[in-house]
UniProtKB/TrEMBL annotation:
Function: Part of the binding-protein-dependent transport system for D-xylose. Probably responsible for the translocation of the substrate across the membrane.
Transmembrane segments: 20-39, 51-71, 77-110, 117-137, 172-192, 213-232, 238-255, 285-306, 369-386
Localization, UniProt: Cell membrane
Membrane protein topology class: Multi-pass membrane protein
Protein name listed in UniProt: Xylose transport system permease protein XylH
Amino acid sequence: MNFFQEAKSLLKVNIRDYGMYIALFVIMLTFTILTDGLFMSSRNISNLLDATGYIAVLAVGMTLVIVIRHIDLSVGFAAGFMGAIAAIMLSQLGVPVYFTIPIILILGIVIGMFNGVLVASVGIPAFVSSLAAMLIFRGALLQVTEKTGTIIVKDDTFNALGNGYLPSLGQIAGLNVLALILGALVILYFVYAEISKRGQKIKYKFDVPSNKIFAVKLVFVSAIIAYVTWILAGYNGFSWTVVITLLVVAIYHFLTTKTVLGRHIYAVGSNPEAAHLSGINVKKITYIVFGSMGMLSALSGILYTARLQSATTTAGTLFELDAIAAAYVGGVSAAGGVGKVTGSIIGAVVMASLSSGMNLLGVGISYQYMIRGAVLALAVIFDVMTRRKRA
């Protein structure tokens, strides 16, 4: 099999994984051409990634919830409510930021676990229980913000989470040195991880792509990382929002791919009955996944509040729909058992890129909603058709 035949075969077999990357590339190329390069400017890409952060964090948790065949509609207003509680603690109660953030994250876990108990132990469908929770948090958010309407946060350390950047070690040709160093480290880690994974597969006699295909993959992905790093280094470097989002993705990617817990989550999603018969505690997995979702909702609320430097009565509106859309566009299956947290991040960037590009082109908000809805529908149709072909 020659190089092109092998590449075509790999693309066909892994179209579910590669499709989202192709879609992102096409979207970015299209908007770059239509905006005369403005879309790919350092400032726009930096703002796009910062605006994606709080949705991307939610999308990671939502991916696992959908993987185990459930849904959580409460995450948006839960994030808004917990962001408001953080603002109250910082501005009105004078609680230091180093205590506020852990307390809010723990509160998120408790809230998420409560949802998990309703679903796993009481037997309430996740759609109904999370819908009830959404209404509760919507009311709670209005209650805590009704006196002032907006709670201003003046803590610079907290606000830096949504607006600050990693400190620069200097400039080289107008580029942020620390950003360049971090980008180089990411590339080195990626190459090392891929070579190690390939070595393990060869050791246990698994099929692996040819050396040429493997080399092309390393060069292509490394070039993308280098290009994004170069763009960000041309502005202010890596923001704290991007760093936090990448850390969340890295941790959850490790948990879902390298641990027993991760294997159990996908086993429950693939077939809950079979998982139970094989000795997996399905209720426990459900608790953990919903508790995780609650914690990530809290983190999303923190990032959003820090970005606005305030808590508002409308915080969290439609966050849950954006997170669900990002998860589906990123490749999670509506049937459960399939989906990657790395894919959900790409899905979040795809949706954010659509919004950013259409804003730059002056597309009306009504058309923006219709186009984003069409993209979501196409992602689900693609998922259904892919499963039919494999069946």
